[in-house]
Specification:
19 strands, 17% strand, six-stranded parallel beta sheet, 545 residues, nine-stranded mixed beta sheet, 41% helix, alpha/beta, globular
Length: 545
């Protein structure tokens, strides 16, 4: 079956299948949780823009990640609501995989390129009548908390994805693993190619994080019993994977099963090479910095004003975008924000190392800042904690509780693609506070910068490749990262508050021409280097050839 409705650019004719557990392609298709999906979505959009011979392979999550609602006390309510997608096409394809000795049936759906202007995506589901209840639940929830379900999801994505593409008679030369979730495909391909060296020529791997949650590990015998290694004997598994211990790390497995691996920023490349220096038999780790799709994320009015060098139009458009955001703030919280007031946004996945609460760490100082009448500020938080991470959910709810005290503080629910775009376009400052070396890339600040929002960040991930402090962004001063984390947090908080009080707030109110210049510089500097067209091109040049 022909999956593409466009002719390929000869530079990108080699057929690639891009396997990802999540894709954030459009608000209407809720099969993503956060940054990994946002990245995959932008990759699919740029593959379409560049006319690349690429197909995405993912899972059609019946309940998505989860929907954010509110309880009566306005705290976070986690809802699992069944989704229906009438714009997807039934490919009429069935495949089977063996999970824990049982046959599980997989149905394939198709997202055509013309629906959302993306590369075609094939989505897999086990939630069909041919399966028993347990098998149907495999593709119910993205990142299910049950370990055995997670393993089953990875088998469906990896082995099931390869089998579906084969049933479609879709030729594939390179299988790209976006994180290690789809690793079982390597053991399906091993049976076809016969040797590990031949297999490696057809597998490329992207590692996204130094965090344990992104470098999944399971008991080797449990994986073997579930069929993760596609019927290989334990002796063969140890021979092929090089793993002689009792536990199996998916990242290590992918490093050893691929011809090349990429980290997702230059700094992450250094971290990843140190992190996996002792991993024998691994592929070379290079750096291809993540990026976001300009066509999707940039406000056309802001770009037109920049291109025409009309500062008045740029500022008027920014104020309009702030009002659009503030309409949502008013609707959700009953608070009326002022478009003339400096507006700071912290919005992304709620994870401990990202430190969503850093701004309020010294609470008395935060209280003084948020209540000041001369040169005031407004602060908005949004994002999705993992639904089964009690501490992350509690922090989200703590921020909601605190926000009831302050008329210029808001916490928004419903953080998905659409709200993310409105926040990035309607803010003045995009606050990013990860502990240094823990954020492999981060991409939200890229799409914020595309819209004249200034990135205020620790010097981690993509930020060092972009930021010229005080010119196109703001960088929180470096600290000694060998000290205890509590001490690092206190020091970063002090430096952040000092910057806001002494540099950023005075600049916004007392030197508006300089602020406008920084906005324009940010918009100009972020493109083309952090447009995903550059990234998608580099994957073909550096990973697929």
């Amino acid at each position: 079956m022909i999956l593409h409705d466009y002719d390929f650019d000869p530079k990108y004719a080699k057929p690639v299948a891009y396997f990802s557990m999540e894709f954030a392609i459009h608000q209407a298709l809720k099969i993503y949780s956060g940054g990994l999906g946002f990245l995959a979505g932008s990759h699919m959009r740029s593959a379409y823009d560049l006319r690349q011979n690429m197909v995405g392979v993912g899972i059609l999550w019946s309940y998505g990640y989860y929907d954010q609602g509110r309880h009566e006390d306005r705290s976070l309510k986690i809802n699992f609501i069944r989704k229906h997608y009438y714009f997807l096409k039934d490919l009429g394809i069935r495949a089977t995989v063996k999970i824990h000795g049982q046959e599980v049936h997989i149905k394939a759906y198709y997202l055509p390129p013309d629906i959302f202007s993306s590369a075609p995506v094939v989505l897999l589901s086990t939630d069909i009548p041919e399966n028993d209840f347990l098998a149907r639940t495999i593709t119910h929830k993205l990142y299910d908390a049950n370990e055995e379900t997670r393993i089953s999801q990875e088998i469906v994505l990896g082995i099931g994805g390869v089998k579906v593409l084969e049933s479609l008679k879709h030729s594939v030369d390179i299988y790209h693993l976006n994180e290690g979730h789809a690793l079982p495909l390597a053991y399906e391909l091993y049976k076809r190619y016969g040797t590990l060296e031949e297999l490696k020529q057809h597998v490329a791997f992207t590692t996204h994080t130094p965090e344990a949650a992104g470098n999944e590990e399971h008991n080797l015998h449990l994986l073997h019993r579930f069929g993760f290694f596609n019927g290989l004997s334990l002796e063969e598994v140890r021979q092929v994977t090089g793993e002689q211990g009792e536990n199996f790390n998916l990242t290590v497995g992918a490093l050893r099963a691929s011809k090349i691996t990429n980290a997702v920023s230059k700094f992450h490349g250094e971290v990843a090479n140190r992190m996996w220096a002792d991993c024998e038999g691994r592929s070379e780790i290079i750096s291809i910095t993540n990026a976001q799709n300009r066509r999707y994320w940039t406000d056309k009015g802001m770009q037109a004003a920049l291109d025409s060098h009309e500062d008045y139009e740029l500022l008027a458009r920014k104020k309009h975008l702030k009002r659009q955001l503030f309409n949502i703030v008013a609707d959700q919280t009953g608070k009326m924000f002022d478009p003339d007031v400096l507006t700071i946004v912290w919005a992304r996945r709620f994870a401990e190392y990202k430190r969503p609460g850093l701004l309020k760490l010294d609470f008395e100082r935060f209280k003084a800042l948020i209540e000041r009448t001369e040169h005031p500020i407004q602060v908005i938080w949004a994002g999705k904690p993992y639904p089964f991470d009690t501490s992350a959910v509690n922090l989200f709810n703590e921020l909601i509780h605190i926000s009831h005290q302050f008329k210029r503080m808001a916490v928004l629910a419903g953080y998905e693609l659409e709200l993310s775009a409105i926040l990035k376009k309607g803010s003045d400052i995009w606050l990013n506070t990860p502990r240094v070396s823990r954020e492999a890339s981060g991409t939200s600040g890229m799409s914020a910068s595309m819209n004249g929002t200034l990135h205020l960040s620790t010097d981690d991930g993509w930020h060092p490749e972009f930021a010229i402090n005080g010119m196109n962004a703001f960088t929180i001063p470096p600290i000694d990262h060998s000290t205890p984390t509590e001490e690092q947090d206190r020091e970063d908080n002090k430096n952040l508050m000092d910057m806001l009080e002494d540099q950023i707030i005075p600049l916004y109110y007392d030197h508006p021409e300089q602020w406008t210049h920084m906005m324009k510089r940010a918009m100009a500097d972020v493109i083309p280097k952090f447009d995903s067209g550059r990234m998608a091109h580099e994957y073909y040049e550096l990973m697929y050839k």
